[in-house]
Amino acid sequence: MDAFYASVELLRYPQLRGLPVVIGGAATEQDRARSLAHAGRLHEIPLAAFPRLASYAGRGVITTATYPARAFGIGSAMGMMKAARLCPQALVLPVDFAEYRRWSRRFKEVVVSIAPVMEDRGVDEVYIDLSALPEAQIEGGRVLARRLQQRILEATGLGCSIGVAPNKLIAKMASEFEKPNGIAIVQPEDLQTRIWPLACRKIHGVGPKTDARLQGHGIRTIGELAARPRAWLLAHFGAAHGAWLHDAAWGRDERPVVTESEPVSMSRETTFERDLHAVRDRALLGQIFTELCEQVAQDLRKDGYLGRTIGIKLRYEDFKIVTRDHTIAEPTQDAAQIRRIAGLCLRRAPLDKRLRLLGVRVGSLLKGEEARLRTNLGRNPHMASLF
DNA sequence: TCTGGGGTCCTAGGACCC
DNA sequence: TCTGGGGTCCTAGGACCC
């Protein structure tokens, strides 16, 4: 989906179309008061009532920027303060995940109604396996892609870009070619002309660290990566990573489109408005800690999961991250239990530096029924020995 | 004026078991 | 004094993605 969060916001605030708008940060009292005052007619809120980046004071990053804002050099993951320098007049809206999830469900319903083999890749992205659809054979899939775009637009008013290719790796890259509202068809024979000229960073899975290492070896483009002997990549990047890099550069990817999956972990974390000290801000920290545990427990119960591995995450003022976790015998979704175990984890972490972020995670998840079955087996000595 | 929140997967060492 | 080879589970950190 193109500029998804921002595009969803423009649906309820059409008066912001064409303007530089950024989404980021949490809702403030002012935001809530404004929405409340105009409940049911958000489109009537005057422009002057929206806060500008110039007056934004909090911590945080841009999650999405409208295309007019991107023209000023603003992009995702950019700090708010830096963005404010680039375009102080840009309007700021708080992130509203609940709303984005609602629109996410709607566009995915449209996709599944046309092409049922869909892999969910988050709130604004999917992979679709078109190979069983006869219509995909027409014009290399362009007709089908256009129909998907049109139906999504009709149902939601939201635009998207589609890449059609022989596998997920190339399709993902192709989806970026014609943004926004574009369609790109990439055939196997297009590898050298359309993929090899791209920077290695464009490969889904090559991040800043790998890119820097590649550049250290003088490898900047995917074509330069493909030119390295496979054995050389294995020697310099390890057996698994090296082989993967070589395959990716040659456009090889056999991963299937996965339509079902279970969550592995659930977590809640928060960055404080100011860095907190474990001793001096003990009371406040304890309160936030308990709230995080309660939120995770609520998330678990809402989706019917229990977990055995309870963990914490700390980010210090110097941005260093530390995690501690502990696995218990019986899976839980109980806030007090999670709080107790997480408290033990916290005691094992260094607490001399000031803290910027605190997080609570529950992993090794089991669905409710599995958890009950597991517990019963464990409690019954006859069953336990049988299994 | 730095740098969110919620995830997945991989690696590597140690404990422990057969 | 010199000490196997699997396998699984747990913990911690790190890379990467949306």
TrEMBL record:
It comes from the Bacteria. CDD domains: PolY_Pol_IV_kappa. GO terms for molecular function: damaged DNA binding; DNA-directed DNA polymerase activity; magnesium ion binding. SUPFAM superfamilies: DNA/RNA polymerases, Lesion bypass DNA polymerase (Y-family), little finger domain. It catalyses: DNA(n) + a 2'-deoxyribonucleoside 5'-triphosphate = DNA(n+1) + diphosphate. InterPro entries: DNA/RNA_pol_sf (IPR043502), DNA_pol_Y-fam_lit_finger_sf (IPR036775), DNA_pol_Y-fam_little_finger (IPR017961), DNA_polymerase-Y (IPR050116), DNApol_IV (IPR022880), PolY_HhH_motif (IPR024728), Rev_trsase/Diguanyl_cyclase (IPR043128), UmuC (IPR001126). Keywords: Cytoplasm, DNA damage, DNA repair, DNA replication, DNA-binding, DNA-directed DNA polymerase, Magnesium, Metal-binding, Mutator protein, Nucleotidyltransferase, Transferase. The record marks 5 as: Substrate discrimination. The keyword Membrane does not apply. PANTHER family: DNA POLYMERASE KAPPA, DNA REPAIR POLYMERASE UMUC / TRANSFERASE FAMILY MEMBER. Belongs to the DNA polymerase type-Y family. This is DNA polymerase IV. It comes from Comamonas flocculans. The lineage of its organism: Bacteria, Pseudomonadati, Pseudomonadota, Betaproteobacteria, Burkholderiales.
